Amino acid sequence: MNTPRAPHTRREFLSAVGQGMLVASVGASLASELGLGVAYADEAVGSLSFGSLEPLVVLMQETPVERLLPTLVERLNQGTDLRTLVAAAALANARTFGGEDYVGFHTMMALAPAFHMSRELPDERKALPVLKVLYRNTNRIHEHGGRSSEVLKPVTSAPVTTSGGEAMQAAVRSGDVERAERTFAGLVQRSPEDGFNDLLFAVQDHTDVHRVVLPYRAWDLLGLIGRDHAHTLLRQSVRYCVKAESHGHGSHGDEPRALLPKLLDEHHLIDRAPGSQTADDAWIEQMSQTIFRGTPSEAAEAAATALAEGFTPDAIGEAISLAANQLVLRDMGRTPQGESPGKPIGSVHGDSIGVHACDSANAWRNMSRAGNPRNVFACLIMGAYQVALDRGDRGGDFLHWDPLPVQRHLDQLKDTEPDRLLAQLNESIRGNMQARACAVVHRYGQLGHAPRGVFDLLLGYAISEDGALHGEKYYRTVSEEFAATRPAFRWRQLTALARVTASEFGRPAAGCEEARSLLKLA
Question: Which of 238, 356, 409, 482 allows an S-S link to 439, with CB 3.0 to 4.6 Å?
Answer without folding.
Answer: 409
